[in-house]
Design a protein that fits this description.
365 residues, seven-stranded antiparallel beta sheet, six-stranded mixed beta sheet, 4 helices, 8% helix, 44% strand
């Protein structure tokens, strides 16, 4: 009968997927079949032969586990949740099957210093952040029994500085990873204050005696260009990455050139949209957030009308010199995930509106 050795085993058989490294079986007699299921669905079934030490090593378990997660769709939901996977393991060799064992796995692309039951902080790189009105922002955490979220908002009213604290109500099960929509507009609605009056606000995560805070400052200065990218952060939750630098548009011409004796023609032509956005100045936390974006399985661009379109990041320039007095920024190049798609934006919204449709907004701008 084979014996399994679980590395980085979490307390109570619960751990983050980034801590999955390998499955090691010892005392294996003959060929070994390993089966891993998630919620009853088979995600791995492989046959192995033991080495000279009667051991079998199953590598890259992290990738197997991560591929089994089903992530929430990006949108404007006030509360987004992601449940851990319920994993079960079964193996059998020439002596028959071993007893089945199970564990829970939380999604993570970053190694954690604690097990999930001790993770009582915001799942974010930021302790201080900057946002703008109209921007959709999220803050993620792992919900435990008794977890509370409070928001304290500093605002002005009748020429005086005010401070208000409210409890943020949300619906989620204990053990869920939760992301709350915490942009300026959402905070103003929760606290009953005007958006234009908010100076900054604090997001407080309370788990008994443990507290963690993110301070969010509201920028009011004008910005020439803003590109909003959304991605699944290191814990599978939606997160916003705002680029406030310029955008370089450089379409790439695709297609084949066919040549005959005295004639040349182009076949299957298409101009692929390729955009490069500059992030503007970045602090260390935002730089870590960008690295998380680059490893995200899905990235979206938020258009001016509030809709989301999936994109694929094809290149990034993150070079910098440390220490340096120069402004630290980066560039991200992306393409639309769906190829050969363009939008004809002349059609009126909501059906036939006569000649006075939105095309006149462009004509007489």
């Amino acid at each position: 009968m084979a014996l399994v050795v679980l590395e980085n085993k979490g307390e109570g058989n619960v751990r983050f997927s980034a801590d999955f490294r390998r499955l090691l079986f010892v005392q294996v007699l003959g060929p070994l079949t390993v089966e891993v299921r998630s919620g009853g669905e088979l995600i791995l079934q492989e046959a192995y032969s033991p080495d000279a030490d009667k051991c079998v090593e199953v590598r890259d378990m992290r990738r197997v586990v991560d591929d089994a997660f089903v992530f929430p769709n990006i949108g404007v939901d006030e509360c987004v949740t992601l449940k851990p996977l319920e994993l079960s393991y079964m193996c059998y060799d020439s002596e028959g099957p071993d007893p089945e064992w199970s564990e829970k796995a939380y999604y993570s692309r970053s190694r954690m210093n604690v097990t999930p039951d001790l993770c009582r902080v915001w799942l974010s790189w930021y302790t201080d952040a900057v946002t703008r009105p109209g921007r959709l922002e999220y803050a993620a955490f792992l919900k435990h029994a008794g977890t509370l979220v409070r928001v304290g908002v500093a605002y002005t009213e009748d020429g005086r500085d005010r401070w208000k604290v409210v409890d943020w109500e949300f619906t989620a099960d204990d053990g869920d990873v939760v992301a709350l929509s915490v942009g300026v507009d959402a905070v103003a609605e929760k606290c009953g204050v005007a958006v234009e009056s908010i100076v900054f606000y604090k997001l407080l995560l309370v788990n008994g005696d443990d507290e963690d805070v993110i301070t969010v400052n509201v920028a009011r200065s004008a910005v020439r260009n803003e590109t909003l990218l959304y991605f699944l952060n290191s814990w599978g939750m939606p997160e916003c990455f705002a680029c406030e630098g310029l955008t370089d548009e450089a379409p790439e011409l695709e297609g084949d050139v066919l040549e005959a004796v005295d004639h040349r023609t182009r076949s299957d032509s298409w101009a692929e949209e390729v955009n490069t956005v500059s992030t503007g100045w970045m602090g260390d936390a935002k730089r870590l957030s960008l690295k998380s974006l680059l490893s995200s399985p899905m990235v979206w661009l938020r258009r001016d009308d509030g809709s989301f379109v999936e994109i694929v990041v094809t290149d990034a320039e993150l070079e910098r010199t440390v220490p340096s007095n120069e402004v630290a920024g980066a560039k991200v190049t992306y393409k639309l995930a769906e190829r050969r798609v363009s939008v004809f934006d002349r059609m009126p919204e909501g059906g036939d509106e006569g000649i006075f449709d939105k095309t006149f907004d462009y004509t007489f701008d």
